Amino acid sequence: MKRxxxxxxxGFLGSHLCKRLLDDGHEVISLDNYFxxxxxxxxxxxxxxxxxxxxxxxxMPFFIxxxxxxxxxxxxxxIHYQYNPIKTVKTSVMGAVNMLGLAKRIKAKILQAxxxxxxGDPLVHPQKEDYWGHVNPIGKRSCYDEGKRVAxxxxxxxxxxxxxxxxxxxxxxxxxxxxxxxxxxxVSNFIVQALxxxxxxxxxxxxxxxxxQYVDDLIEGFIRLMDTREDFIGPVNLGNPxxxxxxxxxxxVIELTGSKSKLVFKPLPEDDPLQRQPDITLxxxxxxxxxxxxxxxxxxxxxxxxxxxxxxx
Length: 313
Ligand code: NAD
Ligand code: UDP
Description:
Elements: E1 3-7, H1 12-23, E2 27-32, E3 51-55, E4 68-71, H2 78-81, H3 85-106, E5 109-115, H4 142-162, E6 166-171, E7 174-175, H5 186-196, E8 200-203, E9 209-211, E10 213-214, H6 215-226, E11 236-238, E12 243-245, H7 246-257, E13 263-266, H8 281-287, H9 295-312
Parallel strand pairs: 1-2, 1-4, 2-3, 4-5, 5-6, 6-11, 7-10, 8-13
Antiparallel strand pairs: 9-12
Bound molecules: nicotinamide-adenine-dinucleotide and uridine-5'-diphosphate.
Uridine-5'-diphosphate binds near residues 185 and 208.
């Protein structure tokens, strides 16, 4: 049994990771400031005596004795990370400094939830880990993109300078139950709009692409990455290579919900990447991992979750 700290443990991904690690027989501590996360996501875990919940902000130092740290704390949806850009940078950068300092002191292994956003609006397609990216340093997305890029730099520097045991995962668009209904990301927006019979909001012409990964596949990738051999540190892409236009996603959601919602077109947000698809050759080789859940199957599970959630409210 390991003792494991998960920052951002009450968020979408964090809550799934808490559950999985508890199910695997570990002791888990969730640290969260509840900016975008919710106790609702973890309340069902609270009667487990091996689960602890801490309200804390990663921009402040935190002391604890653990074997492993998964650093997930950071708002991930564009509307939320752009709400307070300075705080987003602080969360990524000071959060990384605080968690890496902790890992160094207690000799814990630490995994960073990085992102495909480090590739920006990519000029190389699909994206491999050796691509340096095409990122605007002063645009609306830069607080998130550059914050996450500095966090990767800090991880590598603590590893090289202080021998901290690190792992860096570059996560591509992931969806599933426990996303907040007002999260603002495309899968949850479309499903909630379809279930409520509201207009489906397509930003731009809807021809931009994303590759959508169901959450269970990502969590399996996280665990495998944390358990890789000591000298494998990443960064490694974790995503589903299935690439869809946003229009195709909207049509699939309408079909699966049987909704009568209409498509409406809104302006494309600044610096919205035109295309995104992971090359997962490295993850296949080093983690013996690839996603197993196709879009349609994952969407059905997610639609069922939101259907239940909306019927409760
Ligand atoms: P989320 O917004 O649901 O979860 C983030 C969690 O971090 C929330 O519980 C939030 O309250 C918490 N948090 C935010 N700022 C904090 C702070 N200063 N101190 C403590 N807690 C704080 O988002 P998510 O989708 O679960 O993303 C989790 C991580 O994975 C993030 O780091 C995100 O950048 C990364 N990621 C996610 C995706 C995705 O598609 N879901 C893709 C790429 C990267
Ligand atoms: N998007 C959209 N309608 C929405 C929300 C998002 O068309 O209601 C688009 C958005 O412009 C982007 C894609 O869907 O091109 C994915 O957006 P999301 O915010 O989910 O993630 P990210 O842009 O960070 O990949």
